[in-house]
Amino acid sequence: MTGTDRKAGSPLGLHRVIEPSGVLPQAAWRLDPDPPIWPDEVLVSVERLNLDAASFRQLHEASDGDPAAAKAAVLGIVADRGKMQNPVTGSGGMLTGVVREVGADSPLGLRPGDRIATLVSLSLTPLVITDALASWDGTSEQVPCQGHAILFGRSIAAVLPDDLPVPLSLAVMDVCGAPALTHRVVSQAAQRIGDTAERPGSTAGASGKGPVVAILGAAGKSGSLSAAAARRAGASRVIGVVPHEREASALRAAGSAGGRGLVDEVVIADATDPVGVSGAVRQAGGPADVTVVCVDVPGCEGGAILATAQGGTVIFFSMATSFTAAALGAEGVAADVTMLVGNGYTPGHAQLAIDLIRTEPGVRQIFDARTTGE
Questions:
Q1: Which 3 state secondary structure label does DSSP give 273?
Q2: CA-CA distance, 71 to 52, in Å (whole number)?
Q3: 230-274 residue pLDDT tens
Q4: Structural domain range at position 84
Q5: Entry pTM
Q6: Domain for residue 170, yes or no?
């Protein structure tokens, strides 16, 4: 059957769900990755996967660091499920590839030959791998491969920029939801502080009109972009929290790459130690009006909540976040904080992230080191 023979499918991809029936593709155990497309779908020749950090960490640890075992695990997941969704973490990642075919009713605005990055998770993207991952060494989040993937009518994709290497673009777009939402939340906080400071007799913002922002995992991909986005959105102070001296050195070096730097203060603390990390943030100029969690390990909810001022906001971007731990943890310490789960999509997120990588030398330095291994 060809794409022209198929009738209209669901823009949500419901027609690709094999089991269990009646659920969305992300919640499904298995999808149909059959290449003939429906009228509103797009067929993509896959060139590279980017596994999300939490999923790659779990695969690496479960394989005891054996690249061959990690490779076999990924191949097994894709073969069994028709998508790359880690059954332990529930997360996936995203991919780059070249558009092979576009359905007549596709609303995505793509054309055959476009080199794109998908901005929806691999956990809901029908996928087939055909080269047995022969070009992947099993030691990095980026997975060169051959195969095909399918985008639905409600999927999101961006044409890759010509001025950036593909591995760099992939790494940026994999986490582009984080800086976009951070920018929105910090902008709103800055506006509130500014409005309060203008009231007669107010002392708000006396030490600098703008929110204090803490980034847990500031030397990583989403963390460095979020730090730059927070600064651009009007943060008066950005505190970067990292787990050890190696990442602290990388963050300081990125700050010396030009301009004011990514953060005002680098803090070494264990994000899973609630009292320790909250105390360190406070000593560095907190509590934070906005705390952004970009750490790919579980157990960071309590520290993020305690590091945040009453009335502040915590943004969780880690796939390792526990809703139960966050909700009950905040209740248990009487923390009046708004908690947001970054869903990876904010309008304009890809363009903002690409602009940051182009204009912020410190962010580019961190990304270049992570994508080239230097």
A1: coil
A2: 15
A3: 999 999 999 999 999 999 999 998 875 555 678 999 999 999 999
A4: 3-163
A5: 0.84
A6: no
